[in-house]
Amino acid sequence: MGRRRGAFSKTRALWLMVALGASVPALALEPGIADYKHMGVASCATSVCHGKLAPQSDKDVALNEYRIWQQEDRHAQAYRTLELPESRRIAANLGLPNATAAKICLDCHADNVPSDKRGPKFQISDGVGCEACHGGSEKWLESHAAENATHKDNLARGMYPTEQPLRRVQVCLGCHLGTKDQFATHAIMGAGHPRLSFELEAYTTNQPAHFIVDEDYDRRKGKIEGMNLWVTGQLETTRRYLSLLQTNMFHGGGMFPELAFYDCHSCHHPMDKIRWNSARAGAGIKPGSVRLQTQNLIVLQALMDTFEPTATKQLAELTNALIRAGQRDRAAVNEAAKALLNWLAPRDALARKQYSSADVIKMRKTLARYAASDKAGDYAAAEQIVLGLESLSYTIGDRASKKAALDALYNAVKNDNTFSPQQFAAAAANAQRSF
């Protein structure tokens, strides 16, 4: 049995954990996750289940998954993060008596299912445990260990299908972006919480692999190509963002809309490092304006340039219309988001398309071209493109030979405070020939 492809280097992993939010939030209650009782991590952790010290070679799964989660996976540390001095300071700034007891914190730092969905071994202090991703095990905990158990049987009993790209990104986005009921608001970030950023394929790659991808895995669960995972992540992240713009999470009361939907770095950057220009801001947007986030829409423009070039102009126009709407009023934002969602709907086929190696290389070239142009001059867009370049390099299988070029790009985005669009474009232009 062969493990999933190699993980990022330790340096890259540390950078990515910062980029994705150092506290690594957990999962929201995606439909299916809390349908059945969560029996607790201890139910999976014995030496006859998933708690073996070493991987087993004679089974479909390695059976040391609990050990990997406990020792290597940041999700296991999510609750403990709430006990740190910095988390206590954030809670105090928000007027919360205790981060470890506040729903606003537990919803994304623990498997915070309702009390009637908690089994006898459930502990909130376990953080983001098995069932936060795989769904409540009440009906499949015992049956899934049977010799004749199949993955189809497990799903029928309530196991969440994390092997499906769309379902995976939906459950991840519950906290790595948000839902209509929970969101890392501007107030939360103002209190000290890290800015959130997410890219499905890079995040999946960076997580310590507690599953084995081999012929048996593909037969039981289906083969997931890295390109399809990346495309699915970009499409669904865009859809979730646009959908949230139409909810009370954005349209809440008060003078201002929820500012966390806007590009952080259109305001938060050193005053002596001017980043604004008219091409990136969009037609009709004045200097000094706060702008709605567009990083995933920029990546989708690159996707269109590569596989549906006739649609690129319309997407760019709709994106600019969204930015302009964000300067006007909530009704305009609602209409602009709706127009983009309508445009997005028929593009779901791109997530299911069969991509050749030549297709992936072509996509990577487009991303590199965008990086070398003004299109990636905003920090969040540059960040998404760099993550995409590395993800696609792993998919192609030539990551090692692209290391120098990727390192140069990561160095250009490693610090959002000192980020320079001009320096990033120059680094990308030098790296472009490598892709």
TrEMBL record:
<protein>
    <recommendedName>
        <fullName>Cytochrome c-552/4 domain-containing protein</fullName>
    </recommendedName>
</protein>
<keyword id="KW-0732">Signal</keyword>
<dbReference type="InterPro" id="IPR023155">
    <property type="entry name" value="Cyt_c-552/4"/>
</dbReference>
<dbReference type="Pfam" id="PF13435">
    <property type="entry name" value="Cytochrome_C554"/>
</dbReference>
<dbReference type="InterPro" id="IPR036280">
    <property type="entry name" value="Multihaem_cyt_sf"/>
</dbReference>
<feature type="signal peptide">
    <location>
        <begin position="1"/>
        <end position="28"/>
    </location>
</feature>
<feature type="domain" description="Cytochrome c-552/4">
    <location>
        <begin position="64"/>
        <end position="135"/>
    </location>
</feature>
<dbReference type="InterPro" id="IPR051829">
    <property type="entry name" value="Multiheme_Cytochr_ET"/>
</dbReference>
